[in-house]
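Propose amino acids for all 327 sites.
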């Protein structure tokens, strides 16, 4: 008895990697189940957007925008990891203006955080409290960063602490932060199960960076309880595992939409917190992240799975579930 998939069955979706050749050998892939697919999308109907992370200042941003134009890599969002407090007002303004001109969302990280202050727990084998804001002073610093950045025109803030997220969400609701400010949860505190993902959405997250080792099935589990946009490194930096998941991109989109494809870089030295002493490294890695994005998008195109990209310039997540903030 031959249990191999029927090679004559019509192909009604994107081509799967090696599918025809393997099917001819009786090694074809298991059929995809519609029940696994995410029912959600961005407000404009798109399934995926792109993000280039670790864009640490105006020079790196200029490299990313130039290289994205040269290689034809659409960029919806760029994000920075060192922190708002590591940029001057002039640098932030320059980045805001450059992104506005290109219709790219700029996301800057609030700080301080546990890995860079005087606490030792984050440096223990267990990792302790990780990047979370330690004490009232760190919380206040994150709020100060948020107020300063939004005052200069930034409309997306990266957070690594549940209390900071809830606080900024409440300030947004009160009009202290602009109503169109979006809040993005860092990969370093990203949720790993559907219940915790839903909690981040309720606390005010507009997109949530999940750890890069979640399986497609786990993305489906999350999508059964939340429609908040998901961020996922297609290639993760080494301190987040160094995973390279380019051949999975079509399935990650199918399961995780609405999804930001993040083009990180493995086997590269860390650059946080960034300063001019790391200039050449920051510019070289910024350029290579865009190239990695081109490689991932080329794979999607070869397999006929590059449709449903959200239009450039879109940034809002659509209606999401929130905890009540009146009390």
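Proposal:
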């Amino acid at each position: 008895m031959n249990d191999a998939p029927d090679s004559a069955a019509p192909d009604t979706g994107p081509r799967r990697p090696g599918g025809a050749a393997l099917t001819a050998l009786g090694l074809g892939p298991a059929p995809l189940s519609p029940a696994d697919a995410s029912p959600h999308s961005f407000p404009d109907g798109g399934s995926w957007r792109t993000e280039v992370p670790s864009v640490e200042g105006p020079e790196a941003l200029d490299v990313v925008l130039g290289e994205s134009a040269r290689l034809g890599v659409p960029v919806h969002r760029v994000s920075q990891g060192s922190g708002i407090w590591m940029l001057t007002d002039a640098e932030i303004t320059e980045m805001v203006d450059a992104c506005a001109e290109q219709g790219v969302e700029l996301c800057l990280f609030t700080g301080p955080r546990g890995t860079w202050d005087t606490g030792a727990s984050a440096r223990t084998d267990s990792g302790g409290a990780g990047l979370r804001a330690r004490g009232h002073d760190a919380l206040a610093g994150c709020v100060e960063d948020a107020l300063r950045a939004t005052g200069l025109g930034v409309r997306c803030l990266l957070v690594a602490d549940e209390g900071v997220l809830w606080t900024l969400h409440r300030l947004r609701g009160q009009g202290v932060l602009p109503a169109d400010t979006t809040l993005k949860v860092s990969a370093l505190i990203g949720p790993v199960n559907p219940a915790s993902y839903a909690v981040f959405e309720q606390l005010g997250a507009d997109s949530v960076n999940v750890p890069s080792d979640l399986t497609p099935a786990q993305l489906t589990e999350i999508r059964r309880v939340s429609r908040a946009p998901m961020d996922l490194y297609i290639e993760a930096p080494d301190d987040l595992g160094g995973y390279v998941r380019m051949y999975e991109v079509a399935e990650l989109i199918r399961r995780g939409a609405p999804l930001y494809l993040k083009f990180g870089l493995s086997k590269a030295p860390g650059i946080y917190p960034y300063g001019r002493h790391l200039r050449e490294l920051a510019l070289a890695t910024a350029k290579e992240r865009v190239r990695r994005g081109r490689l991932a998008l080329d794979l999607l195109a070869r397999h006929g799975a590059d449709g449903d990209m959200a239009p450039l310039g879109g940034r809002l997540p659509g209606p999401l579930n929130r905890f009540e903030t009146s009390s």
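The first strand starts at residue 48 and ends at 52. The chain is about 35% helix and 10% strand.
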